[in-house]
Write the structure tokens for this entry.
Amino acid sequence: MERNQNILKDTFGRQHSYLRISLTELCNLRCTYCMPAEGIQLSPRSHIMNYDEVYTIAKTFVDHGVTKIRLTGGEPLVRKDVSIILAKLATLNVELAISTNAVTVDRFIDIFKACNIRNINVSLDSLVAEKFNQITRRNDFDKVYKNILLLIKEGFNVKLNAVLIKDFNDNEIVDFINLTKELPISVRFIEFMPFDGNKWDKAKMVTYTEVMTLVNTSFETNEIIRIKDAPNDTSKNYKIKGYKGSFAIISSVTNPFCDSCNRIRLTANGRLKNCLFSSSESDLLTPLRAGKNIEPIIQKAIRAKFKIRGGMDTLEKLESPELHSKNRSMISIGG
Ligand code: SAM
Ligand code: SF4
């Protein structure tokens, strides 16, 4: 395939420069919104990309214009060879970032630095230990909170991701924003999204509008500063005047950011998903193992990308259990 042929541009002119790679379907937490209580059907081990395969596929994307790679999962840091993968990917000319639950982050500080990883997103859904433990079905709040402070102390750019769930953590929105008074972090409130087995219910969702209504009643209007969005930003960013950090809302459900989407996803078993909400996938790993050229498969997958949310262009379609249950659980997509 000719190098000048732009295989990462879709039929709506969107150029895909951001690849999210899920390294594993496993996790040391069990967040209720991410995976069903009974767990998920795991891919056989031999179907999971090894570190050379992760590198080879990633390099193909970088050769075609990907400039940013985020490693995710499951929990990427539970993978035994994660340091090897980081070191290999660090040799590519690409910005490398990671999403983690931070349970074991303290063991990776030097590796992150050596691999020039600056941007680290951490899931934290509650500032109350018992509630955190309830939603993650594990008792790691203290460890996680300590590790978040460690990342900040070590100079990383930290974003905290909180999935908002009505009557669970919506009463902590202002507490999360107040955390940014002294900490130079960005807290990002994420609208709860429907995936297979996560018991999504529209009534449990806290919308962008609801968050901003609360913000507007909790802070003076002249204190709330709207920050200019970066290109392809999925969040609407704000800060409170004088605070060291900022906050943002990711409104994938009520206000999707599909027009400027530059993201594609590679699952741990080597399948390309052209959209987080897409129920179809393109297997890259089997042809790679058979010695085939994966570029035409990538091109076809990108060209098949729908304009909005994997074809679920209305809220009604997104709410339909038959449609969203065709997708994987978030844990096996890699958020
Ligand atoms: N284990 C890592 C972590 O928790 O950050 C990386 C994987 S996790 C699947 C990536 C992101 O997806 C997390 O920020 C998590 O909050 C988000 N996520 C998972 N399920 C979600 C859902 N149903 N709606 C919105 N965000 C979700
Ligand atoms: Fe694990 Fe992250 Fe999913 Fe929580 S959100 S279960 S930490 S993969």
